[in-house]
């Protein structure tokens, strides 16, 4: 990794001069932010807005640098994809947040019950203080800055620990955030797992973690030591149910897109398909056609992302080997040899990490690929006879982050949605509930807890303080001791009001 200032990064031409923060820096930055958050509890709207505008400027001026850093980390990932799924999503979040900031951060009026009238109540949304954000590698800009934007909007100080597996992006984030924000406002702490462990042990006012379920468990344990509330955005196996009345070609195209964008390295990618028995050949053909339409070739195609590292690729290949060994039928979306011509180009070993997609039939629950989140371009297709079996199978496993339903009959759709629990749902497409700014995004059970995005995300990163203002005309003192006949009469009246 080109951390030495005398080295220029070959892929993105950046000079990475930022040294990783030491343990000392971690605690120093935390102390700075903690003191600042206690010294200025009320963070005026103007200050919050100005911080968001600075973030907007950072993205406007340095979006291409960030996209190049992501490309350098993956070896092969289209800057256009990064523009859409990282930078555009962030710009949209910023615009939405700026538009609603005044209303979200203002007093939230509530109705006052008759017995407390003529007093009145409201909810005061206040900054929590210092919010920690730990982010993963798969969408390394959006999943780092998205939670930070909401936390800043809510008036918090933010410390971000991005993934050590995307060092170019993390270094650029550290440099740019350092350039646009004072360390007591927003700071990036780079470092490996040991720094991440120390980071999650800080006495944050809230910790938002995005990553795997296994690490999420450790983060929740570390946060519990300080009673730090957490939002856990985790992973899991998101099922994609195909109904008998669905247009298979259209569904296959949308599933192929949801699965193959970023080569399946998406937390809400459809993990496996549940297909009415008998439609296997038709689905395989439709998926192959759809995949070919999206990516005429895989190896050497700059639109098709590489698997992040050889280690991640080896895990995916091992899963397929095991499934084949245990009797599954694997259908590769073969490459047509087009990758050969670019194997010796500037992409280096990234071409070798561009894994062609594979469909897997006859997968069983004993196979690793049906036990773990796949996180790659492998799509098991499980045949079913009755929809009830599908619902039971989903309910028997950990609660998924996303669920997809393809079909026309709204009654059947609603029956499936009401009988299953998942973090979110997209009907007749994939991924898109994430992009809807008025919907909260989060998991449930093993796929996480708490949600961000939308006003609910803003509320989660705020303290919602209940305020009741007593009126001078209040009759509450009539219920004070000493208790007697007057008390009984008033209580009787109040019981009738209920
Ligand atoms: P990961 O859990 O390995 O790492 C995530 C982050 O946690 C990294 O920054 C890492 O440095 C840090 N970390 C590692 N060990 C830690 C520890 N002991 N204490 C504190 N922090 C620690 O996840 P990953 O491999 O980077 O990302 C892939 C996973 O993230 C997948 O499971 C995917 O589904 C999930 N994910 C979820 C969402 C979502 O929104 N729900 C989004 C993207 C990815």
TrEMBL record:
Keyword Transport found: no
SUPFAM superfamilies: ALDH-like
Alphabetized UniProt keyword annotations: NAD, Oxidoreductase
GO molecular function: aldehyde dehydrogenase (NAD+) activity
Highest taxon above the source species: Bacteria
Name of the molecule in the record: Aldehyde dehydrogenase
Lineage: Bacteria, Pseudomonadati, Pseudomonadota, Betaproteobacteria, Burkholderiales
N-terminal signal peptide: none
Pfam families: Aldedh
Native source organism of the sequence: Delftia acidovorans (strain DSM 14801 / SPH-1)
Active-site residue numbers: 233, 267
Gene3D superfamilies given in the database record: Aldehyde Dehydrogenase, Chain A, domain 1, Aldehyde Dehydrogenase, Chain A, domain 2
One Gene Ontology term, aspect cellular component: cytoplasm
Domain Aldehyde dehydrogenase: 15-467
Membership in a protein family: Belongs to the aldehyde dehydrogenase family.
GO biological processes: aldehyde metabolic process
């Amino acid at each position: 990794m080109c951390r030495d200032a005398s080295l220029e990064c070959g892929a993105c031409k950046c000079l990475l001069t930022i040294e990783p923060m030491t343990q000392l820096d971690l605690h120093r930055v935390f102390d700075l932010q903690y003191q600042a958050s206690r010294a200025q509890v009320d963070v005026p709207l103007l200050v919050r807005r100005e911080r968001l505008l600075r973030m907007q400027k950072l993205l406007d001026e340095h979006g291409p640098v960030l996209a190049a850093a992501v490309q350098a980390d993956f070896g092969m990932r289209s800057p256009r994809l990064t523009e859409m799924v990282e930078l555009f999503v962030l710009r949209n979040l910023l615009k939405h947040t700026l538009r609603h900031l005044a209303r979200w951060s203002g007093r939230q009026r509530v109705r006052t019950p008759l017995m407390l009238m003529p007093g009145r109540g409201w909810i005061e949304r206040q900054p929590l203080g210092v919010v920690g954000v730990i982010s993963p590698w798969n969408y390394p800009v959006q999943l780092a800055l998205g939670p930070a934007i909401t936390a800043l909007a809510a008036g918090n100080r933010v410390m971000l620990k991005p993934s050590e597996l995307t060092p170019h992006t993390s270094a650029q984030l550290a440099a740019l955030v350092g350039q646009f924000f004072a360390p007591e406002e927003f700071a990036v702490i780079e470092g490996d797992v040991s720094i991440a462990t120390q980071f999650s042990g800080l006495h944050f006012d809230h910790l938002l973690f995005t990553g795997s379920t296994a690490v999420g468990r450790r983060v929740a344990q570390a946060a519990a030591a300080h009673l730090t509330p957490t939002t856990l955005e985790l992973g899991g196996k998101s099922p994609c149910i195909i109904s008998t009345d669905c247009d298979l070609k259209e569904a296959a195209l949308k599933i192929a897109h949801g699965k193959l964008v970023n080569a399946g390295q998406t937390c809400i990618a459809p993990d496996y398909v549940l297909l009415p028995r008998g439609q296997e050949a038709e689905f395989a053909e439709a998926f192959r056609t759809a995949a070919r339409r999206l990516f005429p070739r895989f190896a050497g195609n700059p639109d098709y992302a590489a698997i992040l590292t050889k280690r991640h690729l080896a895990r995916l290949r091992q899963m397929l080997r095991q499934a084949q060994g245990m009797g599954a039928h694997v259908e590769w979306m073969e490459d047509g040899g087009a990758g050969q011509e670019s194997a010796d180009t500037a992409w280096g070993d990234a071409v070798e990490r561009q894994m062609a997609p594979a469909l897997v039939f006859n997968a069983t629950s004993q196979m690793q690929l049906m036990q773990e989140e796949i996180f790659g371009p492998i799509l098991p297709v499980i045949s079913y006879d009755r929809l009830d079996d599908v619902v039971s199978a989903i309910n028997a496993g950990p609660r998924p982050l996303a669920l997809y339903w393809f079909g026309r009959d709204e009654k059947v759709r609603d029956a499936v949605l009401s009988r299953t629990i998942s973090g979110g749902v997209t009907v007749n497409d994939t991924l898109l509930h994430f992009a809807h700014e008025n919907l909260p995004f989060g998991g449930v059970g093993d796929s996480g807890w708490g949600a961000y995005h939308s006003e609910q995300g803003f509320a989660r990163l705020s303290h919602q303080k209940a305020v009741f203002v007593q009126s001078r005309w209040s009759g509450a003192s009539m219920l004070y001791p000493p208790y007697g006949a007057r008390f009984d009469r008033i209580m009787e009246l109040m019981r009738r009001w209920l």
